[in-house]
UniProtKB/TrEMBL annotation:
InterPro entries: Leu-rich_rpt, LRR_dom_sf, NLR, NLRX1_C
Protein's gene: Nlrx1
Domain NLR family member X1 C-terminal as annotated: residue spans: 634-695
Record keywords, A-Z: Leucine-rich repeat, Repeat
Record's protein name: NLRX1 protein
Pfam family, one: LRR_6
Keyword Flavoprotein: no
Domain of life per record: Eukaryota
């Protein structure tokens, strides 16, 4: 009675307070102004230290960029603007962005599933839907049973927009008792708008969508893992069989259960049978237990199958990985907007299986227990066991890079070290080319791969936006890789310093290292030269198009004599002149194992070519690949050189390539005129034709 203000998140409770005690009602509507949303994001994302160990200048620039992209997306009045009307969803957006952009620890301190589970605890911990209802069902359990069902059916039918009819069917309004309708009314009043909101997309104004898209997949996963996907008959059948097994202990409970499925007139008969033939029912219960165990195994296999099917769905193979999808959903997609009449892309639900795995982790199960959503240890163990039959087996097949990243992220979210170790042990080749390897993805890859210590035959990180920080994070993984592809990553001298430390480590097994199309430069070459001098595992090193220049090549040559294992060195397209090229080949002549040096597309004159030819003739074991000719014959490596050009053309200066091809063509024609052998002339004409074809395509832009 002394209270002057009552604050509640439950509008349905307000109706229970007698009107005579209340003088004024006020509803606080959240961030109705997008400027308030922007202010919140600026304050939250500008907190110091959120980017960990990186320099302050870089972290500030990244934070400002995030706020700017988020502000632009809010101004477009997309669905996220409607979602961030609720301040707690602003918290979820910021926490997710922190996770995506500023995770640099191995293993990551959070999981995405953990963020969503914590978010739900923040809003619904300890709450029951209606304290006056005898069932005392928790708010979150009710959401999982109802909204989870809608979410799951949407995932299965690949839809994100729901009509009023969809909602009616999902909540089974026509089949509910009076008490169930009361619960539904409380839910609609207090919780509905938190999970579902009107769609703002033109043409879909009368439909509903999940306020945060990923929440649909989280609730669908929770619905499946909690076993709510079973039919009523399955749930009652299981309950009935369990109780019949305890028939001698409590007959009244049996009657209570059976009354759900049998007409009342049969109850006296059943009651007497239970008293007269308890042993008979005991035998029946034993058989039922076997049948239930078989049924449960089938259900667990079905869950694992569902998880695997969604995780490895072939039509999703060429989408962005899930972390990039989440990033786009929050920050928007930069570039021209889609025309309203243009057909939308198919909906992708790759987070659904990842959330299924994440919900089964011990920490998330403990939080869900507090929310009234109990997942028993045994159930989690059995599901994990069933998953091994399907998820790990399907994960062993060759996956496209983005799907492989999703698979690794799934293993991280699952937080089961033994399961992850078994899955990772089968990955002998890891191809993540063209996946944008953010700090989080590097941390996930390092964490997942650290569960075993097996050697990796090949790790392909071509065009993955790597930098020196990425290499530091991945250092323990890189040590165990035999073939390492790091092309097209803007790796400069700082990154080469990390690579030097990697190659000089006593546990390094890297035998093939490709650094093509990186701005290594002179200083980077010095670091790599130091590595060559002390490394004992490397046999192939590609520094194709890495801006070495003569000083960089001199540094390599200077330390090459101390190396005893290198077999192939590629210094093509590095602006080397005659002096540097001759110096490298002279050292290669004296090297015990080096037998192939690539020097094509450098600034080597005709005199230089003749000098290199004479060095090659002195020792047949050293092959210097400079031109398409070898004296008065075609080089055995002409097709290899042209293939290298064709593969790298998108990343090279086209005019310079055209000039080099013209020089190669002149050299071919000159060498052809010096031979009288008709067989050799035919070979020259064939290669000339290939070069002319490439020049023609280059000229008209079709290559």
């Amino acid at each position: 009675p002394q209270a002057s203000i009552i604050v509640t998140t439950r509008p349905s409770a307000v109706r229970r307070i007698p009107g005579k005690y209340v003088g004024r009602y006020a509803e606080i509507c959240g961030f109705s102004d997008t400027n308030l949303q922007k202010l919140y994001f600026q304050m939250r994302l500008s907190q110091p230290g959120c980017s960990g160990e990186e320099s302050q200048d870089r972290s500030s620039a990244e934070q400002e960029n995030l706020v700017e992209m988020l502000s632009r997306n809010l101004e477009r009045h997309n669905q996220i603007t409607a979602a961030c009307f609720l301040p707690s969803y602003c918290w979820l957006v910021c926490t997710t962005l922190h996770f995506l952009y500023f995770t640099r620890t191995v293993p990551p301190s959070q999981t995405l599933t953990g963020i969503y589970t914590s978010f739900l605890r923040l809003n619904f911990s300890g709450e029951v839907l209606d304290s006056s209802d005898p069932t005392h069902i928790s708010m979150m359990k009710y959401v999982a049973k109802t909204v989870g069902k809608l979410a799951y059916e949407g995932v299965m039918s690949r839809k994100t927009c729901f009509s009023e009819e969809d909602l009616r069917q999902c909540f089974e309004v026509e089949m509910k008792t009076e008490s169930e309708l009361n619960l539904l009314e409380v839910f609609r009043s207090d919780v509905f708008r938190f999970f579902l909101s009107p769609c703002v997309q033109p043409g879909k104004e009368h439909t509903f969508v999940f306020t945060i898209p990923a929440m649909q997949e989280y609730l669908a996963a929770l619905y499946v893992v909690l076993g709510e996907k079973k039919t009523l008959a399955q749930r009652v059948g299981k309950e009935l069989s369990e109780v019949i097994g305890k028939v001698s202990e409590d007959v009244a409970v049996v009657v209570n259960i059976v009354s759900k499925v049998l007409p009342l007139r049969f109850l006296p008969v059943l009651f007497n049978l239970l008293k007269i033939f308890p042993r008979y029912f005991s035998r029946v219960s034993g058989k039922d237990r076997d049948a239930i165990a078989h049924t449960m195994a089938e259900e667990l296999d079905a869950i694992a199958h569902t998880m695997a099917e969604e995780l490895f769905k072939e039509e999703d193979y060429y989408n962005d990985d899930v972390l990039d999808q989440i990033n786009s959903s929050i920050l928007g997609v930069e570039g021209p907007m889609r025309h309203p009449d243009e057909a939308p892309d198919d909906e992708v639900f790759e987070l659904f299986p990842i959330f299924m795995g994440g919900i089964l982790s011990r920490r998330n199960r403990a939080i869900l227990e507090q929310l009234g959503c109990s997942i028993k240890n045994l159930a989690a163990f059995e599901i994990a066991k069933a998953m091994k039959k399907t998820v790990i087996r399907k994960g062993r097949k060759g996956l496209p890079p983005s799907e492989l990243m999703d698979y690794l992220f799934f293993l991280h979210e699952f937080q089961n070290e033994r399961f992850t170790a078994e899955a990772v042990r089968s990955l002998r080749a890891v191809n993540l080319s063209s996946v944008k390897m953010t700090p989080l993805k590097c941390s996930v890859l390092a964490s997942v791969m650290s569960t075993t210590c097996h050697e990796v035959e090949e790790l392909n990180l071509t065009s993955c936006n790597l930098d020196s920080s990425s290499l530091r994070t991945l250092f323990p993984v890189l040590l165990r890789c035999k073939a390492l592809h790091l092309q097209l990553n803007s790796l400069g001298s700082d990154a080469c310093k990390e690579i030097r430390d990697l190659l000089l480590h006593d546990k390094c097994v890297v035998s093939s290292l490709r650094l093509a199309n990186n701005p290594v430069g002179e200083q980077g070459a010095r670091y790599l030269a130091e590595a060559l001098a002390g490394n004992r595992s490397l046999t192939q090193l590609s520094l194709l198009h890495t801006a070495l220049g003569d000083p960089g090549a001199e540094a390599i040559a200077q330390h090459l004599a101390q190396n005893q294992h290198l077999q192939e060195l590629n210094l093509g397209y590095n602006s080397l002149t005659d002096t540097a090229a001759l110096r490298v080949v002279e050292v290669a002549k004296r090297h015990e194992t080096l037998d192939k040096v690539h020097l094509y597309f450098n600034d080597i004159s005709e005199d230089g070519k003749r000098a290199l030819d004479s060095l090659r003739m002195d020792r047949d074991g050293v092959r210097a690949l400079v031109f398409l000719t070898a004296g008065t014959d075609v080089s055995d490596y002409w097709s290899h050189i042209l293939n290298v050009v064709q593969r790298n053309l998108p990343f090279w200066d086209r005019e310079r390539v055209r000039q080099h091809l013209a020089l190669l063509l002149q050299d071919l024609e000159s060498s052809r005129s010096q031979t009288a052998n008709p067989w050799r002339k035919a070979k020259f004409l064939r290669v000339e034709s290939e070069v002319k074809k490439m020049l023609g395509k280059l000229q008209d832009g079709s290559l």
